[in-house]
Amino acid sequence: MKISKKKVGVIHYTLKNDKGVVLDSSDGQKPLSYIHGMKNLIPGMEKALEGKVAGDKLDIVIPPEEAYGIRSEKLVNDVPIANFPEKEHVKVGVQFQANTPEGPKVATVIKVEGETVSVDFNHPLADETLHFSIEIIEVRDATEDEISHGHVHGDGCNH
Ligand code: ZN
């Protein structure tokens, strides 16, 4: 069975940046399961996995445009410190999940000056060229439920 729209792909992966530093890996953990064609993965990864079968191994290089995007200064915003529920945790380098019009995003505090906090809504991997080593473990049909929910059901799903 080939990976195509509405198939579940089960993969092991290792992600490195341009310098060869490992940023993320499923090594030693359960493989990642995702539904193809439902934006579960970054576009460059879906493109590379299309048509692949269990047992295939691939090394791919994904430019930022097809990964987490190009850094934009427009995504750096000043926010009053009063907007943060726990002021004492607001420090440079702290990351948190923020709700934005485009959905939840990881945001990073880059400056605290008096009552003003500069928050960077660029993805932490913006501007990065990503190097993935991927092994396809399994390809199967997604269930009706999985397709309607837009995510894979299994051990980690509690509904
Ligand atoms: Zn669900």
Description of the molecule:
The chain has helices spanning 43-49, 144-149, and strands spanning 7-16, 22-25, 32-35, 57-62, 76-80, 95-100, 103-113, 116-120, 130-141. The protein folds into two domains: 7-68 and 126-149, Chitinase A, domain 3 (Roll); 73-120, Thrombin, subunit H. Strands 1, 2, 3, 4 and 9 form a five-stranded antiparallel sheet that branches. A four-stranded antiparallel sheet has the order 5-8-7-6, with no helix packed on it. It has two helices and nine strands. It has 159 residues and is mostly beta strands. It is globular, with a radius of gyration of 18 Å. The site of zinc ion has 5 residues, from loops.
Short synopsis of the structure:
This protein has 159 residues and is mainly beta.
Described by the principal axes of the CA atoms, the overall outline is globular
Number of domains: 2
Output the number of helix runs: 2
Could you say which small molecules are bound to this protein? zinc ion
Assigned CATH class of the largest domain:
Alpha Beta
The value of Rg in angstroms is 18 Å
Ordered list of secondary-structure elements with their pairings:
Elements: E1 7-16, E2 22-25, E3 32-35, H1 43-49, E4 57-62, E5 76-80, E6 95-100, E7 103-113, E8 116-120, E9 130-141, H2 144-149
Antiparallel strand pairs: 1-2, 1-3, 1-9, 4-9, 5-8, 6-7, 7-8
Bound molecules: zinc ion (ZN).
Structural features:
159 residues, mainly beta, Chitinase A, domain 3, Thrombin, subunit H, 2 domains, five-stranded antiparallel β-sheet, 9 strands, 40% strand, binds zinc ion
